[in-house]
Amino acid sequence: MIADKGDRKVTKGRGAPGNAPGRYARTVHEAQDDGWFDEGEPAGPPRTQVTEEQARSVLSRNTSPDLPFDRSVNAYRGCEHGCSYCFARPSHSYLELSPGLDFETRLFAKTNAAERLRAELARPGYRCAPIAMGTNTDPYQPIERRYRITRQLIELLAECRHPFTLLTKNALIERDLDLLAPLAREGLVSAALSVTTLDNRLAARMEPRASAPHRRLQAIRRLAEAGVPTGVMFAPVIPAVNDHELEHVLEAAREAGATRAGYVLLRLPHELKQHFRDWLDVHHPERAEHVMSLVRQSRGGRDYDASFGQRQRGTGAWAELVRARFDLAWRRLGYAEWRSRPLDIGAFVPPRAPTPQGQLF
């Protein structure tokens, strides 16, 4: 179903209210009536298209002081969850695609990801450190049911005893408990679920194809019961939209078994600034200006500040209030009492590099 709201379209099951061209687009596409449909008949909703690609490399490295990891793997480009606030949306511009509907409907699956990672881990100079999965696009988005690339990566990491972390907002992670539970006992994996709201209606607008809030909490419970160290991320914190739920989400996750918690303020890099404003105009027109005013108050008067040390938590009175609320709830709910042990990097055994002749021993 596609409904009009002003000059923007609201498509059921999709998060983007439009498909504006990315910043590197050399051509712009504009829909025109070709006369095939009766006047006023709406076009069908956009379907998910998946392109299989052969990646040259899958291990990405960073030196950001804001991040607790220096390397990551993303099995997919684009994400079908359709989260309206996703900071990764502008990455689709490098493909000359829109950070809007294209990001959640035109996806790319790195079908050789496990093969490429095997080759990179087998390099003589490789030094082991935890690999993060779910840092850009979700490793358990719906198309993972078909492609199973994330599972292939986990199987490889299990084979060579390489530590890793998982971050997702999809209960599909439960599928891989047969792999994750034994790895957790060896100190090789930890997981976290992103829970942004407990309100099903708000979740359906913000992140239409992610698991419902209660299923994510259930996944936290099942992971914790299986012995997998599990945390919760309240991210992003959106002023006057979901910020009032911070304590409630931390409490529900703690009750489900989460032992770690974190939060990140709304980030609006590049085209996401306008995209999120459009989303507000469609879904929360009565408070759109108020939301953006609070965003700017926490970003030094701008829509976004990418400076290290500030991009995750922001600055100013409102950001400090969120920080204080989080710290108070974190201590009150007992998160401070848990001290997660570091993942084991000493058990790593480099995989054998693939060779056309195979191995004798």
Give a written overview of the molecule.
The relative contact order is 0.13. The chain has a seven-stranded mixed β-sheet. The longest helix has 17 residues, at 316-332. The termini are far apart. It is 30% helix and 15% strand. The protein has one domain (2-24, 46-337): TIM Barrel (Alpha-Beta Barrel). The model has no long low-confidence stretch (mean pLDDT 91). Helix 7 packs parallel to helix 8 and helix 8 runs parallel beside helix 11 (316-332). It has helices at residues 101-105, 113-121, 144-147, 149-159, 177-185, 200-206, 213-225, 246-256, 272-283, 288-297, 316-332, and strands spanning 2-5, 8-11, 49-53, 59-61, 71-73, 76-77, 106-110, 131-133, 164-168, 189-194, 230-237, 260-265. The protein is an alpha/beta fold and 361 residues long. The radius of gyration is 21 Å and the shape is globular.
Runs in which pLDDT lies below 50 for 5 or more consecutive residues are none
- What is the topology, as strand order, of the major beta sheet? 4-5-8-9-10-11-12
Taken in chain order, the helices and strands follow as EEEEEEHEHEHHEHEHHEHEHHH
Number of domains: 1
Strand content: 5-15%
Radius of gyration: 21 Å
Broad CATH class: Alpha Beta
The major sheet is characterized as: 7 strands, mixed
CATH fold description: TIM Barrel
Q: Architecture, CATH level 2?
A: Alpha-Beta Barrel
Helix content: 25-40%
Mean pLDDT: 91
Given helix and strand content, the structural type is: alpha/beta
Overall outline: globular
Spatial separation of the terminal alpha carbons: 59 Å
CATH level 4 superfamily? Aldolase class I
Query: Total helix count?
Result: 11
The overall strand count is 12
